[in-house]
Amino acid sequence: MFTMFHGFHLVEEYHQWKEQHRSSRNPIGIKVIKLLLAIAIPLFFWIAPSAYYGLSGLSPVEHRVLAIFVFAALMWLFDAVPAWTTSLVVVVLLLFCTSNSALWFFQTDPSGVRFTNLINNTDILHCFADPTIMLFIGGFIIAIAATKSGLDIKLAKVMLMPFGTKSESVLLGFILVTALFSMFISNTATAAMMLTFLTPVLSALPADGKGKIGLALAIPVGANIGGMGTPIGTPPNAIALKFLNDPNGMNMV
């Protein structure tokens, strides 16, 4: 089956196509509308009393945190700006609007009395410097470096060749290679990459054949199995590892 297999370049072509069509998918006018909506809706939550949306009894600080949460969710949903930009803006908003180092007019009520439930600024920053977050970043850096350099494609090509052309061996090869990649790259990214490799293979198989179904199912199965192998294989692994290594364990929740 692999003697005529020339699909390893498709992943790189997909990434190039994605970059070329990113701007056409979100023209400037659409981006501006999305950005205005992502700002206007949180402003309503910020200004309107919490009783308007069924959450009466919120303190002013909690009210602001809710508005910032809505802003972040809408910005990520609309993709008006890069996701990392929203993440940084959220940190700045939390520090300037809800922490004990916030701007002075956010620290007091209209009568000048200081709020008692302001969030400690070090606690806000500590959440973003958590070892689990750093572990995620390390895994993302490895995945991005492999994709940008083309190392993932070259490794997959080399690792799949020894499995020959027999259908059983090819199926086993895709499962093992996908599982191995999922140990160091996110499950979703690995599955997308390997499914792209499969495109020319699937097109050569009968539409109603079991081989096509088996190969298509081998990718997500292998990705899920391999994702359990290392802490960076999938985000829940790192979160579980954090609680397992903490002296308080699940009592932290």
Could you walk me through the main structural features you see in this protein, from its secondary elements to its overall organization?
- By secondary structure, this protein is mainly α.
- The chain has 11 helices and no strands.
- The radius of gyration is 24 Å and the shape is elongated.
- The relative contact order is 0.10.
- The model is unreliable at 1-8 (pLDDT under 50).
Overall body shape: elongated
Determine the number of helices (DSSP H or I, runs of at least 4 residues): 11
Oligomer: single chain
Total number of beta strands: 0
Helical percentage: 55-70%
Uncertain residue segments: 1-8
Brief synopsis:
The chain is mainly alpha-helical and 253 residues long.
Main features:
253 residues; 11 helices; 67% helix
Which helices and strands appear, and what pairs or packs with what?
Blueprint: H1 10-25, H2 28-47, H3 60-78, H4 83-98, H5 121-128, H6 131-149, H7 151-160, H8 167-182, H9 187-203, H10 210-227, H11 235-245
